[in-house]
Amino acid sequence: MKVLCLNGPNLNRLGKREKKAYGTFTLEELENELMDFAGSNGINLMCMQSNHEGELVDWIHLAADDGTDAIVLNAGAYTHTSVAIRDAIASIQIPVVEVHISNVYKREEFRHHSYIAPVAAGQITGFGQDVYKLALHALLLQQSRG
């Protein structure tokens, strides 16, 4: 199984920003942990991060065309603002799992709406860095069920 893990704006600041909401781990530490988990579970994982909406849209399109089986997406603040990312997901035929490190529903009201959720295969929120592993696990379960 080939999976693309996309992280959106400000996730490159993990470990430095809002530690109460996001913890103390860095993006590099998160990606290393995910690569180990993926390797142990037969997943070919690629991780990418961008602060630029159009770049995320381009990567979603490329994933759909290069044989990627699924995407794990933390779109950060674009979750609540980007029709472009929503439309990119709607335009592809592979599952996208939306993840959020913090529980967005316990935070500011504007974070309670996701443009991505209606076009995603599922959403996992609020379990810290484990949301990524939970998403990979869910994708494996879906794959095993055919």
TrEMBL record:
Pathway: Metabolic intermediate biosynthesis; chorismate biosynthesis; chorismate from D-erythrose 4-phosphate and phosphoenolpyruvate: step 3/7. CDD domains: DHQase_II. It catalyses: 3-dehydroquinate = 3-dehydroshikimate + H2O. The active site is at residues 22, 100. It comes from the Bacteria. InterPro entries: DHquinase_II (IPR001874), DHquinase_II_CS (IPR018509), DHquinase_II_sf (IPR036441). Pfam families: DHquinase_II. Its EC number is 4.2.1.10. The record marks 17 as: Transition state stabilizer. NCBIfam families: aroQ, PRK05395.1-2, PRK05395.1-3, PRK05395.1-4. Belongs to the type-II 3-dehydroquinase family. Homododecamer. Catalyzes a trans-dehydration via an enolate intermediate. This is 3-dehydroquinate dehydratase.
